[in-house]
Amino acid sequence: MYVLVHPGLEHDPAEKQNEIGVIAYADLPRDDVFVRFDDGAQGLYSADALLMLMSAEQVHQYLSDMAYDVAFTDLKPLVQIDLFLRYGSADKQRTALELARSNKNIQQFSLETLENKLEIHQSRGYE
Q: N or C: lower Cβ tally within 10 Å for the chain?
């Protein structure tokens, strides 16, 4: 599962703010999430320090809601993220996350914290 280290994270001993990694191990009761990065480094984070893509349904709903109110330059990467989430393979998940990372204007419409995502799943009865 791909995650983005929050770009505004103030204390990050691994110095991986705004970098994409893969969850290597998670101890959720202790709020310990180990993330492995492309360079082989690993960092320990809490669930609120990591960002993930919203569900395809959420992104699509935002896209539908704001289609006529947002400049095309901002809308285009959100359309791409929407398509990658709905029709792409696992490698497209990373591409979608890279798009969200590099387009700050759409991050609020495409990213959420791992903590928030876990709370949503727990409220639905998933573990």
A: C
